[in-house]
């Protein structure tokens, strides 16, 4: 009976030693990782509460300005947008002549921005331009659209990207405009 107890005690002791040796590295690494955030907290606490609040407010204002401004480089406002396009001009329902410019940014595959201009009956202009950068970045683009006659005094600017898989239209953005006689 003493041999059984001694064997059981020995196996239990080795098991405990083995588990503590295996788990020792993990416990140490967790402790080290936990120490780092505490040091960051100490660094933040060194400044005054007013400084921290001012820094947070400034960061929030910068984020809001970036979201609300169209193109940060030239300060233009976004007048129409979807997941793939941000258009700065022309605004929906604005008046355009028989030649006008569409400016904006696109986040499309291989930077290809396809467009059409139609009057409800006919496609008056069609083509594509290349933005300055392809997805996932936003690239700037500019399209000059010119036409001769329209059937109505309204038109639609249609921006889209073509699917690489099947050529179908994706992320279509339609901007209605009025055509000046």
Which helices and strands appear, and what pairs or packs with what?
Blueprint lengths: L1 H45 L2 H20 E3 L4 E2 L2 E2 L3 E5 L5 E2 L2 E8 L5 E7 L4 E8 L8 E8 L7 E9 L6 E11 L2
Parallel strand pairs: 5-11
Antiparallel strand pairs: 1-2, 3-4, 4-6, 6-9, 7-8, 7-10, 10-11
Structure description:
- It is built from two helices and eleven strands.
- The chain has helices spanning 2-46, 49-68; strands spanning 69-71, 76-77, 80-81, 85-89, 95-96, 99-106, 112-118, 123-130, 139-146, 154-162, 169-179.
- Residues 24-48 and 62-73 have low confidence and may be disordered.
The major pleated sheet works out as: 5 strands, mixed
Span between termini = 111 Å
Helical region count? Answer: 2
β-sheet strand percentage: 35-45%
Which blocks of ≥5 consecutive residues have pLDDT under 50? 24-48, 62-73
| SSE pattern | HHEEEEEEEEEEE
- What's the overall geometry? rod-shaped
Number of separate strands: 11
Instruction: Provide the helix percentage.
Output: 25-40%
Determine Rg (CA atoms, Å): 32 Å
Q: Which strand order do you get reading across the main beta sheet?
A: 5-11-10-7-8
Structural class, by secondary structure, is: alpha+beta
Overall average pLDDT: 77
